[in-house]
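S1.2 Input.
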Amino acid sequence: MNKQQLLESLREKGFSEEIVEAFSKVKRGDFVPKNVLPMAYEDTALPIGKGQTISQPYTIAVMLSLMDLKKGKGQKILEIGSGCGYVLALLSEIAGKNGKVYGMEVLKELAEKSKKNLEDYDNVKIYVKNGSHGLKEKAPFDAIIISAATRDIPEEIMGQLKNHGILVAPKGSRFEQELVAIRRKSNSEFEVKKKIPGFVFVPFIEN
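S1.3 Output.
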């Protein structure tokens, strides 16, 4: 599959033109190791080193659609487990120049690679640190995405959403999760907006 075929596949699956446009602008090949470069636009997860993967484009597109992002609204977005930086680049395109995108990656080698990958993205900042406590100093966020499997979503992270903000994460056992979208309705009330079963992510690194 080449890039154009991937974009057509995403369109056929019903994703918004805004999401497809982001995939069009971001070169996935810039975010994968050389040994898997020929497979860069296959709709599948690929290894990026340190036991981590770059997620399947379809999976990423589902997560982005659940986040309900608004271009040009100056939204603030956090990705926990940002890996090679591919999702951060897509989020940057969707958020637009007025948006702010923050990434947290605990594995230093991957974080440093992602910083290099994203050096031309002025609205992205990456932190080399554990994401299990979120990024309190930049909270609250309009949207938070956790790009690793977790059995339970820490309340501390959920508490960093703005009212009406959305958190998207793969929740479940080590070998199968469902994507959940949770909206913050008030200071003390959260609503599960959607659950989509049948996903497998690498596990969340707690420390």
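S1.4 Remarks. DSSP finds six helices and nine strands in the chain.
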